[in-house]
């Protein structure tokens, strides 16, 4: 930078000097110039164009990555980096979801990128896809190996997916949450690709015809991972064509509630399958489970919320059929029986299955006998989740008996446990290698238990004692023993913590990255001690600041901050946030802040991407006008919620319409809807509303088709809803 001039040196000589520096010194040079280089005026200036054309390859790539990481990309800025010799590893445009449109792709097609995400970008259409695919000799088309088109409703069609299929090196494609564009006819265009993974999760229109089309081309020989989570039209018979996919190793059917035992019989022919997810397939029972014994290479099996009892597992001697099984997921298997569950564990141990992860969350048959069997049988276990197992009480741990997994267990969740303090002490003292421990809402957790964990688990990285009212500030001081490794600490609702604790403990928590103290009252002394947590990135103080506190010395690295329900947070507190240059998400719901403080906040924090102002004195109209005013100078699009309305900094405003006028229209429409009442659908049905039959609702139809994006997503249909869903729908 030229001192005192507002400009910077951009001669080829100065760029070459930076390019010849050692990598670490060049990075320092970029850091020193960052504030000046990355201002909006300079990014689009002729001088900046000269700089990017003169920089050596390595430095130009580093500069582009820096611009992307700090949310400063625009379509004109993209055009400054044509044909970088080294492809970028990843570019995530979902961070710019509200501003990315088809115009970006003209410049983007010249930037080589291996992994591109345009997920949740509602403004791109199929024209953007055509732009990339039409230039097959362009750097982007040649380098792209991974493409994420999740929730891009206007970008998918049979024609656009035919264009995607022409990308020569594409191996991974996500079309998740496209319930309109991802049809059977559209995904059939992918049959002639060589994709290795395909994500069709929550594409509601996919059925057996689409799956059959996928299995008819070269894709059947290359596809390794297929995600059909939430595809509600998929049945057991729809899975039969998958037998032709000889390379398939991972299949997700989570939430496909129409898949029953006949579907598992079809899957039995896919001998290459290693990972199978049947979460929520509640028609799958023991009879179907036995069909899977041919999958001898199975490593991961999720049977959560299925109808298994354990009989098929035991009687079919399935552990012997799956010698490589590493993960079993049995969460909420309501029909699982206690005796059979214990026999399942014994069977796994008998054939020395190398089980590493066992999840039995909310399985009510898990009692002392099942837990004792776990402790004596599974010597290779690394992750154990027994959350909400209410029959797991005292007597499940015998004296000083050392569990078989004492030397291997790294993650343990006993959330909601009814174990006593004595039982917890005996168990936890035998687990020295624990890294992640959750004891939230457990009755037996006390100061002694926290002290036991601190003294025996020296490598602990995450600790959750939320809702444990017996824990006091005295116990927290013992955590300094594992302060060198602790990164996540959750103390939500620990009402027993009253005295000062953070001032003493803070200096020992040098690696802490996430702290949650919701509803734990923080004094001014404790708030001042937050400055000791220099590496903190996530902080939740929901309801913890009740007395007016003024400015708070927040740690400089904080990216996500929750101050909701803090009645002591005022404008002065908000002004102190300007020091957090990397803050991306801020929740001020229920705080005593004003329009002026929010305006200063938005002007001074250009990287803020999410702001919640619900329940504050800030007027929605003021925020809307301010976002529109700042839309040309903020590099990052901002999603803002206030008084039940979601606003967006990329909003377009038509004529003199303001938010208040839209709200006035909506109030009038609600009166019209109230007069129409339920039963307005065809044949008196209460499930739909025909707008054409009610001219008094014409303004509502106009709002649905023409509302600015600042009012959030427009509903595609209106329904008179059951009472339990009425509140959510009315907010929408």
List the topology elements:
Blueprint: H1 12-19, H2 23-37, H3 40-43, H4 46-54, H5 57-69, H6 75-78, E1 91-92, H7 104-108, E2 115-117, H8 126-134, H9 139-143, E3 146-148, H10 158-165, E4 172-174, H11 184-187, E5 197-199, H12 208-214, H13 219-222, E6 225-227, E7 250-252, H14 261-267, E8 275-277, H15 286-290, E9 300-302, H16 311-315, H17 318-321, E10 327-329, H18 338-350, E11 357-359, H19 368-377, E12 383-385, E13 411-413, H20 421-428, E14 436-438, H21 447-456, E15 462-464, H22 473-476, E16 488-490, H23 502-506, E17 514-516, H24 524-528, E18 538-540, E19 560-562, H25 571-575, E20 585-587, H26 595-604, E21 610-612, H27 620-630, E22 639-642, E23 645-648, H28 659-676, H29 698-706, H30 723-731
Parallel strand pairs: 1-2, 2-3, 3-4, 4-5, 5-6, 6-7, 7-8, 8-9, 9-10, 10-11, 11-12, 12-13, 13-14, 14-15, 15-16, 16-17, 17-18, 18-19, 19-20, 20-21, 21-22
Antiparallel strand pairs: 22-23
Care to give the gist of this entry?
This protein has 732 residues and is α/β, with parallel strands linked by helices.
Structure description:
The structure is a single chain. With 732 residues, the protein is α/β, with parallel strands linked by helices. It is 32% helix and 10% strand. The chain has 30 helices and 23 strands. It has a 23-stranded mixed β-sheet, covered by helices on one side. Helix 18 (338-350) packs parallel to helix 19 and helix 26 packs parallel to helix 27 (620-630). The longest helix has 18 residues, at 659-676. The radius of gyration is 29 Å and the shape is globular. The chain starts with 11 loop residues before the first helix and ends with a helix.
């Amino acid at each position: 930078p030229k001192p005192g001039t507002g400009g910077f040196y951009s001669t080829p000589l100065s760029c070459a000097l930076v390019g010849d520096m050692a990598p670490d010194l060049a990075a320092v040079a970029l850091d020193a110039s960052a504030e000046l280089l990355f201002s909006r005026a300079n990014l689009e200036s002729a001088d900046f164009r000269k700089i990017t054309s003169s920089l050596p390859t390595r430095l130009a790539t580093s500069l582009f990555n820096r611009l992307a990481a700090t949310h400063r990309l625009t379509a004109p800025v993209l055009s400054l980096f044509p044909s970088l010799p080294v492809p970028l590893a990843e570019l995530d445009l979902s961070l710019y979801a509200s501003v990315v449109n088809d115009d970006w792709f003209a410049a983007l097609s010249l930037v080589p990128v291996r992994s591109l995400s345009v997920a949740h970008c509602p403004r791109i259409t199929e024209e953007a896809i055509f732009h990339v695919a039409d230039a097959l000799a362009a750097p982007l088309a040649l380098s792209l190996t991974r493409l994420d088109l999740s929730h891009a409703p206007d970008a998918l069609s049979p024609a656009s997916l035919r264009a995607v299929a022409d990308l020569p090196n594409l191996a991974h494609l996500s079309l998740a949450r496209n319930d309109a564009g991802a049809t059977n006819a559209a995904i059939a265009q992918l049959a002639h690709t060589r994709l290795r993974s395909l994500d069709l999760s929550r594409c509601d229109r996919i059925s057996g015809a689409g799956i059959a089309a996928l299995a008819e081309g070269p894709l059947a020989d290359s596809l390794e991972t297929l995600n059909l989570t939430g595809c509600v039209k998929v049945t057991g018979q729809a899975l039969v064509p998958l037998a032709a996919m000889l390379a398939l190793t991972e299949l997700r059917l989570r939430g496909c509630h129409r898949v029953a035992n006949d579907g598992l019989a079809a899957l039995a022919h896919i001998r290459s399958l290693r990972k199978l997810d049947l979460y929520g397939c509640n028609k799958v029972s023991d009879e179907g489970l036995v069909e899977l014994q041919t999958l001898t290479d199975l490593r991961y099996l999720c049977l959560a919320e299925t109808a298994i009892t354990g009989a098929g597992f035991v009687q079919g001697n399935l552990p012997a059929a799956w010698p490589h099984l590493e993960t079993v997921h049995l969460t909420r298997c309501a029909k699982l029986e206690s005796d059979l569950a214990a026999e399942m564990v014994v069977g796994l141990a008998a054939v020395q299955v190398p089980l590493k992860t066992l999840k039995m969350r909310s399985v009510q048959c898990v009692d002392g006998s099942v837990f004792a069997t776990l402790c004596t049988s599974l010597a290779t276990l690394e992750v154990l989740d027994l959350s909400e197992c209410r029959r797991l009480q005292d007597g499940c741990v015998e004296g000083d008996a050392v569990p078989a997994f004492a030397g291997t267990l790294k993650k343990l969740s006993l959330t909601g446990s009814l174990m006593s303090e004595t039982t917890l002490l005996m168990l936890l003292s035998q687990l020295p290698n624990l890294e992640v421990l959750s004891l939230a809402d457990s009755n037996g957790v006390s100061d002694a238990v926290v002290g036991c964990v601190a003294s025996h688990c020296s490598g602990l990285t995450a600790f959750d004692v939320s809702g444990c009212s017996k824990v006091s500030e005295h116990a927290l001081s013992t955590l300094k023993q594992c302060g060198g490794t602790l990164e996540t600490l959750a103390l939500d609702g620990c009402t027993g913590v009253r005295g000062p604790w953070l001032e003493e403990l803070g200096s020992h928590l040098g690696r802490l990255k996430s702290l949650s103290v919701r509803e734990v009252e923080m004094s001014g002394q404790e708030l001042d001690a937050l400055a000791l947590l220099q590496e903190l990135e996530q902080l939740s103080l929901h309801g913890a600041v009740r007395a007016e506190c003024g400015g708070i010395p927040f740690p400089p690295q904080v990216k996500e901050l929750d101050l909701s329900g803090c009645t002591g947070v005022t404008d002065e507190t908000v002004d102190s946030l300007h020091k957090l240059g990397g803050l991306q998400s801020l929740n001020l719901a229920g705080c005593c802040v004003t329009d002026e403080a929010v305006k200063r906040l938005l002007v001074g924090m250009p990287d803020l991407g999410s702001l919640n102002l619900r329940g504050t004195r800030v007027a929605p109209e003021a925020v809307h006008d301010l976002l529109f005013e700042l839309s040309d100078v903020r590099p990052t699009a901002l999603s803002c919620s206030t008084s039940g309305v979601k606003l967006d900094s990329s909003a377009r405003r038509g004529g003199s319409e303001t938010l208040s006028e839209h709200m006035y229209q909506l109030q009038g429409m609600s009166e019209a809807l109230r007069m129409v009442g339920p039963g307005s659908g065809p044949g008196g049905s209460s499930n739909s509303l025909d707008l054409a039959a009610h001219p008094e609702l014409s303004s509502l139809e106009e709002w649905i088709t023409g509302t600015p994006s600042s009012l959030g997503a427009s509903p595609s249909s209106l329904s008179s809803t059951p009472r339990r869903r009425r509140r959510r729908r009315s907010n929408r």
